[in-house]
Amino acid sequence: MYLYREFLTPDDEEVYDTFGEWPDSDENGTRILTFQDTSGQSLVFSYHVLERSVRVRWMNNQEVTLVDIYRECATRLSFSPGKSTRNILIEFDMGECAGVMDIQIAPHFAIEDRLLFR
């Protein structure tokens, strides 16, 4: 039997303290953060607390999608700020599977995703 787990997320103030900008919000309550690197690539990270979902879209400087990941069953969202790096960490629990997605924002974009059977 799978029990519902809450999706724990930082408040908007912590988002601002980490990235220097407030998250946008759409009409459905999805929180959206948009990042650009020096080469013109962009990364859009969005999350919806009640749906326990996240989406990562990474586009090149010509707005061609390089990576588009959507996943549900998120349980925890946190940020790992540093002097030279900034990361978004998302933990997932899907009953038989659990994992972590690590999205590096600075000094450059990178995504590491691990989802494994227990």
Automatic annotation (TrEMBL):
Superkingdom to which the source organism belongs: Bacteria
Name of the featured protein: Uncharacterized protein
Native source species: Streptomyces thermogriseus
